[in-house]
Design a protein that fits this description.
By secondary structure, the chain is α+β, with helices and mostly antiparallel strands. 38% of the residues lie in helices and 24% in strands. It folds into 2 domains: 342 residues, Rossmann fold (3-Layer(aba) Sandwich), CATH 3.40.50; 61 residues, no CATH class.
Length: 440
């Protein structure tokens, strides 16, 4: 039993009684449309088929996550203690200063989601590591529960034990566990979920707010510009803030730093516990893939970790410097992608094979020497998915897989899957969010 064979079994079930399942599909789609799985007040795209994972897949994810966290902690330690090593990251002065601030607890990356091309086994490649702003938990849990009530899954439950990865309450508990180790902790901390209002995922934040409240905590969704630092305490209105669940991506935090002086001063002073700290940016920035391949990084890693990087981290280099680099990427466009060192939602990412030669040259000229990376192109794995048209006819189409693996408090927590017809998933457009189910 593996994910692919389970997928084929699911498709056969749906095709066998398509009229029954078409009616069930319409009900499921309506539930999804009317749910709180929303982004910028629009429903997140939904498909009537889950992604199946087995216990063997979870073993693979745990092993990969453990090695990645070990590497991350060693790289972070080197950054903190070796000024020369910091230069590799080319961070602005403010960010470097904030990374060096003692966050007051004992973990560098409280929450992360590493995205990878995975289709079972040990032959997978990382796409990127997300730390600050890791998202998708709410929509996955909503869609998973909808699918658990669907007729095809009910049919499969006659043979298998099927469950999902609970991602909301589990993070709330892990964040509180981290806070319990905070050096300036207080009893019953007041909590703020913090992001810029124009960027934040309101529906997801609401789900987390309700989960914290059910555990008895005062919690608000807060724009960081509304925080005030008064007499050594951080406030949102009259509410003292003791703990922040940071959803602001670091690049935006720094870009808008002049708008949030109170938060920055409180952070410098250790007056509030920020989960996660700016320290998590060390692994979040896309230049980390280049740095992991550098000889002076691999010299302080274990042999197993170096082999892990060579096997699973795509070759990455700066798109700058010697013009031979430009010529290599130009002349071998199908082998490479270019991407900004620090962005989110796939902004500025270009895949050579998606462009004609002249278009590719124009893109490269615009990116050259402007904090871009070039990276080995990896063919995404595919899997078949069922599609219904408006008349209830079935089509089965192959989609490209992007698997995200959540780590809470450095432990495996769950999975997030997006599928697309395209090589790159851009933001929240052009893809389906697929619920993830564990079959045992």
């Amino acid at each position: 039993m593996d994910g692919r064979s389970l997928t084929e079994e699911y498709i056969d079930i749906v095709k066998e009684h398509k009229d029954i399942y078409y009616e069930d599909y319409k009900k499921a789609k309506n539930k999804a449309r009317n749910s709180n799985a929303r982004y910028k007040d629009k429903p997140v795209p939904f498909l009537y088929q889950p992604m199946f994972f087995t216990e063997k897949d979870i073993e693979n994810f745990k092993k990969a996550g453990n090695i990645l966290m070990s590497i991350a902690n060693k790289v972070t330690d080197r950054y903190i203690h070796y000024p020369k090593y910091r230069e590799k990251f080319k961070y602005p002065k403010l960010l470097e200063e904030l990374i060096l601030v003692d966050q007051g607890y004992d973990i560098n990356i409280p929450i992360s989601r590493f995205d990878l091309f995975y289709d079972g086994g040990d032959d997978f490649k990382f796409i990127e590591v997300n730390t600050d702003g890791s998202s998708g938990m709410n929509e996955d849990n909503i869609f998973a529960n909808i699918m658990l009530e669907s007729k095809p899954i009910k049919e499969m439950q006659k043979k298998y034990n099927i469950t999902y990865f609970e991602l909301i309450n589990s993070w709330v508990q892990e964040s509180l566990n981290i806070y319990s180790r905070y050096k300036n902790k207080v009893e019953n901390p007041n909590i703020a979920i913090v992001d810029f209002k124009e960027t934040g995922i309101t529906a997801e934040f609401q789900a987390f707010r309700e989960a914290y409240r059910k555990k008895g905590y005062n919690v608000e969704i807060v724009d960081p510009r509304d925080l005030r630092y008064i007499n050594g305490k951080l406030y949102y209105g009259d509410m003292r803030i003791d703990m922040i669940y940071r959803r602001i991506v670091t690049v935006e935090f720094i870009e808008k730093s002049q708008e949030i002086p109170d938060l920055i001063e409180a952070y410098r002073d250790g007056a509030v516990c920020v989960i996660g700290s700016l320290r998590s940016q060390i692994m979040h920035n896309k230049i980390i893939f280049k740095i992991l391949h550098d000889a002076d990084t691999q010299e302080f890693l274990m042999e197993e970790e170096v082999e892990f990087i060579k096997k699973h981290i795509p070759y990455t280099e700066e798109f700058a410097g010697d013009k031979k680099v430009f010529e290599e990427v130009r002349n071998n466009k199908d082998k490479y992608i270019v991407k900004p060192m620090d962005s989110f939602a796939s902004q500025g990412v270009h895949t050579g094979r998606d462009y004609a030669a002249e278009e590719w040259v124009k893109i490269l000229e615009d990116c050259w020497g402007k904090n871009y990376l070039f990276q080995q192109f990896i063919d995404p794995p595919t899997r078949p998915f069922v599609l219904f048209d408006e008349e209830g006819n079935i089509d089965v189409e192959d989609f490209k897989l992007n698997i995200g693996v959540y780590m809470y408090n450095e432990q495996f927590a769950g999975v997030y899957t997006r599928i697309s017809r395209e090589n790159i998933i851009f933001g929240r457009e052009g893809y389906y969010s697929i619920p993830n189910l564990l079959i045992m």
